[in-house]
C-alpha cells in the first residue's frame, strides 16, 4: 500500500531535524528510532541529498545546510547560531567593509550590527530578506543564483568580488578542522570562499556551531592558517578545539542565546 505523503514528509522532517541537531546520523540509528527499515531511511536520505541538505556516506549522512525549522530547543541549533552571530558582530567597526558568504550563521551577523556605518558584500541572496540597521548597506555579488540555497556563484560573482577589498570576513562552512581547514560540500562555492579569504585585508572569522567542528567535507575552501578566529559553541569537541588553538586560531566558545529578538525575518 502506498504510504500517505503527510506521513512520509513528517518522517523525513524528523530525520532532517536529527541531522541538524547532531551534524550527522547513522542509518541504523534512524531506522531503530523511527521504526522503519534501513532501506526506507536510505531513500529518505537520498531525498535530502538531492535537495542539497545532506551528504551521504556509507552507513549514514552528514549535514550540509539546514532545511527544516524546529521549535524544540533540544533539536535546534538556532540559539547557538544566534549566540555566535551576536558575538561576532562586536568585531565589526564603524566604516568596515565586510564579506559574508552563504552561511546562515554568518548571515545572522547582519541582525546584530547596530549604529555603525558598514558595507556588507555577500553572495547570499537571502540577505535581502534580513532585517538590519539602516546604517548597514548590503551589496550583492550577483552571479548565477543556485536554488534552494539562494547562493550566487560563477564567473560574474567572482569578477565582482575580485574588485573589492574587505576589512573583515565572516564565513560559515560545512566543516572546520585542523586536518582540512574550512570545507564545503558544494563545489561551486569553493572559489567564492577562496576569493573572500584572499581579498580580506583584515581578520577572517569562521562562524560554526558544534555540528561543524571536526567535520570534513569534500571540497577545501581554505586551510587552517587562513583564519584568525573560530567562534563556536560550548558543545564543540574539546580535543579538536585544542588542536585548532594550537594551530594559531583564536577560539571562542559560547552558551546558547536564550532570547532571540522577534525582529528577525525568516524565510
Automatic annotation (TrEMBL):
InterPro entries in UniProt: Carb_Metab_HTH_regulators, DeoR-like_C, DeoR_HTH, HTH_ArsR_DNA-bd_dom, NagB/RpiA_transferase-like, Tscrpt_reg_HTH_DeoR_CS, WH-like_DNA-bd_sf, WH_DNA-bd_sf
The keyword Nucleus is annotated on this UniProt entry: no
Matching Gene3D superfamilies: 3.40.50.1360, Winged helix-like DNA-binding domain superfamily/Winged helix DNA-binding domain (1.10.10.10)
Domain HTH deoR-type as annotated: residue spans: 8-63
Pfam families linked to this entry: DeoRC (PF00455), HTH_DeoR (PF08220)
GO MF terms, alphabetically ordered: DNA binding; DNA-binding transcription factor activity
Domain HTH arsR-type positions: 1-87
Keywords from the named record: DNA-binding, Transcription, Transcription regulation
Keyword Transcription regulation: yes
Protein name as catalogued: HTH deoR-type domain-containing protein
Organism: [Clostridium] innocuum 2959
Lineage, broadest ranks: Bacteria, Bacillati, Bacillota, Clostridia, Eubacteriales
Amino acid at each position: 500500500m502506498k504510504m500517505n505523503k503527510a506521513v512520509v514528509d513528517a518522517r523525513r522532517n524528523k530525520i532532517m531535524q536529527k541531522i541538524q541537531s547532531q551534524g550527522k546520523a547513522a542509518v541504523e540509528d534512524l531506522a531503530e528510532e523511527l521504526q522503519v527499515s534501513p532501506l526506507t531511511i536510505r531513500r529518505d536520505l537520498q531525498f535530502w541529498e538531492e535537495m542539497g541538505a545532506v551528504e551521504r556516506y556509507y552507513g549514514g549522512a552528514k549535514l550540509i545546510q539546514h532545511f527544516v525549522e524546529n521549535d524544540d530547543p533540544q533539536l535546534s541549533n538556532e540559539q547557538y547560531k544566534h549566540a555566535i552571530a551576536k558575538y561576532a558582530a562586536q568585531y565589526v567597526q564603524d566604516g568596515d567593509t565586510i564579506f559574508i558568504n552563504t552561511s546562515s550563521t554568518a548571515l545572522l551577523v547582519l541582525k546584530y550590527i547596530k549604529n555603525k556605518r558598514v558595507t556588507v558584500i555577500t553572495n547570499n541572496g537571502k540577505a535581502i530578506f534580513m532585517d538590519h540597521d539602516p546604517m548597514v548597506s548590503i551589496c550583492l555579488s550577483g552571479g548565477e543564483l543556485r536554488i534552494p540555497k539562494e547562493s550566487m556563484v560563477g564567473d560574474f560573482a567572482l569578477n565582482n568580488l575580485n574588485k573589492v577589498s574587505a576589512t573583515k570576513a565572516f564565513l560559515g562552512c560545512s566543516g572546520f578542522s585542523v586536518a582540512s581547514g574550512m570545507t564545503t560540500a558544494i563545489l561551486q562555492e569553493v572559489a567564492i570562499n577562496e576569493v573572500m579569504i584572499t581579498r580580506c585585508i583584515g581578520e577572517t572569522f569562521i562562524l560554526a556551531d558544534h555540528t561543524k567542528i571536526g567535520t570534513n567535507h569534500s571540497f577545501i575552501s581554505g586551510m587552517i592558517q587562513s583564519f584568525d578566529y573560530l567562534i563556536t559553541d560550548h558543545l564543540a569537541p574539546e580535543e579538536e578545539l585544542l588542536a585548532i588553538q594550537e594551530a594559531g586560531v583564536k577560539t571562542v566558545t559560547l552558551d546558547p542565546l536564550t532570547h532571540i529578538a522577534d525582529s528577525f525575518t525568516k524565510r
